[in-house]
Amino acid sequence: MRLISVCLTLILVLVAPLHTAQARQAAISSAHPAATDAGFEILEQGGNAFDAAVAVSAVLAVVEPYSSGIGGGGFWLLYRNKDGKQIMIDGREKAPYQSHRDMYLDSTGEVIPGLSVDGPLSAGIPGEPAALVHIAEKYGKLSLHKTLAPAIRAARNGFKVTPHYQRMAQFRLEALRKSPAAAKIFLLNNEVPPLGYVIKQEDLAKTLEAMAKHGRAGFYEGEVARRLVTETRKAGGIWSMQDLAKYQIVERKPLTGHYRGYQITSAAPPSSGGIALLEILHQLEGLDLHEQNNLQRKHLIIEAMRRAYRDRAEYLGDPDFVKVPIKTLLSKQHADQLRKSIDPEWATPSSDLKPVASKDSGFHTTHFSIIDKHGNRVAATLSINYPFGSCYVPPGTGVLLNDEMDDFSAKPGVPNAYGLVGAEANAIAPGKRMLSSMSPTFVENKQRLAVIGTPGGSRIITMVLHGILAFVDGKDAETIVNLPRYHHQYLPDMVQHEVDAFSAEEKAGLEKRGHQLKQLDSTYGNMHIVIQDKKTGKLSAAGDKRGEGKALVK
Ligand code: DON
Q1: 182-220, pLDDT tens digit by residue?
Q2: pTM of the complete model beyond 0.85
C-alpha cells in the first residue's frame, strides 16, 4: 500500500504540469501606469488575468498611441491555471483582399520608399478588436462593458503628453501632418504638443463604446466599419467591407522547447519569435555557455543569432499560406548542423552561410505581462508597427491605422524598416498575415516562472533571448529588464549594440574575431516581466528603465 502511494506520488510529481503554488497576489507590468492601474481595477472587480489583459490592451491602445491600438494587432499568450491550457491568440493584421505581391513596387520593379510605412495603403486589416472580444468572451469573467470602461474613460478624459510621446511624435511629425484627423488628435496646431498637454480622443471613446455594446460587430460591421472603409478608400487605401467582416483571429498552439531544464513557451508563426528563440537556444544548449568567459559567451551567442535569423529570412511566413518547416527547424539534427558550423574563434561572415533561397525573381509596439492570484498568465505583445503606425486616422473613427504591411517582404532581399530581408514565404498575398518578430514568452521549471516580452522590431527576439538566458542564470526581474543588449540578425552583417553591452576588452576581442560592431545612438526595447517563485507563490515584477511603464505586485 505504502509502495503504491509512493509510486502514485512519484507519478503525480512527474506528470504534474509544472504546478504552481497559488499566488495570494497578482502582478502586472506594462508600458504605461494607466494601463497597469486599469488591470488591477479589473482584478479588484472580480476579473481574472484575461479580463485584466483586455483592459490593459485597451488602455494601452488609448494612452500609448504610438505603440499599439485597435487599429493594429498582436499576439496574446495565455495560460489558464485550472486546466493548464496554453494558447496563443493570433490577432495579427491581414493583408486586404485587393493587395498583391508587388503593390509597393514601381513600374521598374523598385520598392517605392514610404508606401508601406505611411498612409492608408500601409495598413493591414486590424486584429486587436477581434482578439479583445474573443479573449473577453471565451476566457474572461466580466463583460466587455466593464473591461473596456477604463479605456473609454481614458479616451474621454485624456492622458498627458510625456517626453517619450514627444520623441515619437517628432519622429513621425511629417506623416502625422498628412492626415488631418491624426494631426488634430495627436498634434497641437500641427506641432508636437508641449509636455503635460492633455490628448483627448472622443471619437475613439465612441468606437470603443460600440465594441463594448456590440462586440466584434461594433468594429467590423455597421457605422464604424463603413467609415473605416469609405475614409480609407478616399485617402488612397484599398480596404473593403468584406475585409473587415471576414477578419478572424486564430487560436494557435504556442511553440514549446527546452533549455537547461527550463520549458520555453513562445509565439508560433506568423511570429518568427518562437522558432528563432528556440533555434538559438538549441544551438547554445550544446555549447556550455556557463563555462565560457564573457567574450567567448558573447561570440557564441552572436553566431547562434546569425544562423537563426538566416532561417527566419528564408522559411518563415504565415502558416495558413506557406508550409513552414517547423519540425525540421526545431529538430536536434538542425541544431547540431548549425552548431557545427560555428567557428569558436572567428565570426562567420553572413555571406558564407547558404544564401536565402528565393524563387523570384523601441519604442513603439508594446508588451505587458500578468499573473493573477489564481495562477492564470498573460504575455501579450501588441503593435501598430512603426511609431504612430501609418499615421493615418479615418475621420470620425479615432482609429489610428497600423502600417504592418511593411512587415511583409515587399521584394525578395530588399530590407524593410527594421533591415530585415525576406523571401517568398513572406511575400504579400490577399488575406495573408505578415511575418512578425513579436515574442510573448513563458519560461519555467519546477521552481520558477517568468512571463516576459518586449517591443523592438527585429531585435525583439534577441532581447527575449537575453532575458531567458539571464533568468535561467537566476537573475531577478529588475536585472533582467535592464540588461545591456546586443543583436545580430544575419543581414546586415553586424552586431548592433547598446553603449554598455561590451567592455573595451570584449569589443577588441570581438573585432579581432571578425565581428563588425555597430554601437547604436540610443537604447532600445521596453521589456516587461513578471516572475513567480512556484514553491511559495511569491511574485516580483519589473518594467524596463528605458520606458515609462509601471510594474506592480499587489
Ligand atoms: O510584428 C513585428 O515584428 C513588428 N511590427 C514589431 C514592431 C516593433 O516592435 C516596433 N518597436 N520598436
Answers
A1: 999 999 999 999 999 999 999 999 999 999 999 999 999
A2: yes
The reply to whether 223 and 274 lie within a common domain is: no
Q: Which of 207, 365, 397, 441 does the annotation list as catalytic?
A: 365
138/218 same-domain check: yes
Residue 55 lies in a domain: yes
Collapse the DSSP code of 44 into the 3-class scheme (helix H, G, I; strand E, B; otherwise coil) and give the result. helix
d(CA 71, CA 225): 12
Atom of ligand 1 at shortest range from CA of 524: 12
Residue 549 lies in a domain: no
> Is 171 buried (19+), middle (13-18) or exposed (0-12) by CB count in 10 A?
middle
Angle subtended at Cα 53 by Cα 390 and Cα 165, rounded to the nearest 5 degrees: 40
State in Å: Cα 456 to ligand 1 middle. Answer: 6
Instruction: Say yes or no: 345 and 492 in one domain.
Output: yes
The CA 268 to ligand 1 mean position distance, Å, reads 16
Residue 144: predicted pLDDT: 98
Is residue 108 exposed (0-12), middle (13-18) or buried (19+ Cβ within 10 Å)? exposed
Q: In terms of DSSP H, where are the helices of 89-196? A: 128-139, 144-147, 149-157, 163-171, 173-178, 180-186
Find the domain containing 174 and state its range: 27-250+363-415
CA separation for the pair 319, 430 (Å, rounded): 14
Is 365 a known active-site residue?
A: yes
Residues with CB under 6 A from ligand 1: 362-365, 383, 385, 404, 407, 436-438, 455-457, 460
pLDDT recorded at residue 417: 85
pLDDT at 168 over 50: yes
